[in-house]
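Training component of the fellowship. As part of building independent skills, the fellow (R.M.) carried out the full modelling exercise for a liganded target. The chosen ligand was 6-O-alpha-D-glucopyranosyl-D-fructose. The inputs are recorded below so that the supervisory panel can assess the work.
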Amino acid sequence: MVYQVYPRSFADSDGDGVGDLRGVESKLDYLAELGVDVLWLSPVYPSPQDDNGYDISDYRGIEPVFGTLDDFDRLLAGVHERGMKLVMDLVVNHTSDEHPWFVESRSAKDNPKRDWYWWRPPREGVPAGAPGAEPTNWTSFFTGPTWELDETTGEYYLHLFSRKQPDLNWENPQVRAAVHEMMRWWLDRGVDGFRMDVINMISKDTALPDSPGGDGSAHYLHGPRLHEFLREMHREVFADRAGATMTVGEMPGVTVEEARLLTDPARAEVDMVFQFEHVQLDHGPAKWDRTGLDLRDLKATLGRWQAGLADVGWNSLYWNNHDQPRVVSRFGDDGRYRVESAKMLATVLHLHRGTPFIYQGEELGMTNYPFTSAAQFRDIESVNHHALAGDVALPGLRAMSRDNARTPMQWDASPNAGFTTGTPWLPVNPNHTEVNAAAARAETDSVFHHYRALIALRHSEPTVVHGDFTMLLPDDPNVYAFSRSHRDTELLVLANFSPKEQRPDLGFPWWDAHLVLGSHSDGGTTLRPWEARVYRR
Ligand code: ISL
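Fellow's submitted model of the complex:
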């Protein structure tokens, strides 16, 4: 299983209020105790931090606030000493506007790096800078147009995310070669792979057409050359390191059919993809318009991914990352049944077929932050959304803001939760007095120890890794039930997604089977509120 560290919010070693690499290093024994196989580090490269490091200005260094390359090498050695692996975040759909490549590119129309980015003149007949002069009508992920006028040359550059994140032009072979070289540089340094940020956006429709409503995604998601670019990258970077690396491509909008191709080992593209369907089920027209979750939709979606990648490819499994609200607040109950529902969600995730990805604090059942005002948000997406929509946006932000995931890791009950001795860059959740690693480690029936048990089960029981997946009771609105079978072992997983007792009818007395693991220590003929059980048959 892979554990994601968001370095800014994990552990601060020097009291400046921002987490750092030495902080991560100081927690490696904790990660080993949990049973982590692979650590994924969110970006630690030099960056103006417009999007918390997803805007990189130097691909071969470490942002001073996080430490130095020496600190990085020490961390990597510490990871390897404990038998774990480390994957870096690879953000190459775009760079920072402060990256030397872009600084050169914007300097003149005839600069050799001009074509490394997407430059276009204003729309014909509309003066530069006037409303509607943008080369397309696309809206960026962080609100506003995807085009920014650069006064130096009077042309616009494309940025699917913030204006400080210009998109690289992957059509240019020099760009691709520079990225490959940089990837080999990190692998030679000893890193074990990459999580590839929005990697299904690197191939665009070069005609850059307008889109009805301004959603340009049809022209930049899964573009015509995506497979070609990924196969080339595999050949240039990974082919001679066969088997020793891991890759996972983050791909908003990816479908099961595309994922089968992308993760088919015979095609040599990526090992896994992050799909987004299950984390959009509670969105209305926009992510801020939160609707409830209908459990039947979740089962239909995840079941389809299990079936779709059963014979070819491989699933990634996740509830949380640095972009998603906390799952216990979202799909569970972060009040009375926080512990029960956190364990239940963990059980369901870990027993699916695929590689589980756990986001820091998830193993403690960390919750959303009780935001009360707009001034508390730091995330560019949240800040921009509020600037556009005003205070009516607050309920949506409170439920869905990415800052919910980014408050500091809760290590203990002390005033800053043991995260920093200074002032944390984002406030610590007040519930850290109760929800924290020290308390969870001390208590045998905590969420933490349940994660440990699930991770250990995956390591010891081949059925969890290899077993076939069969969804049961797809129409039950409260119970998530499935089985996994491998050789002569069958594991039956039952999970109650409701605060009411449930007695699912599977047509046989399932409660008589051998209880392998559960959110409660004992079994019984009914599932208690938010309870999960794993039986062996
Ligand atoms: O969280 C989102 C906005 O609702 C997603 O659309 C997110 O922007 C998308 O998943 C891409 O995420 C990745 O690339 C972004 C960065 O801001 C995210 O943190 C990163 O995970 C741009 O690099």
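The panel noted the following from the submitted structure. DSSP finds 16 helices and 16 strands in the chain. The longest helix spans residues 173-189.
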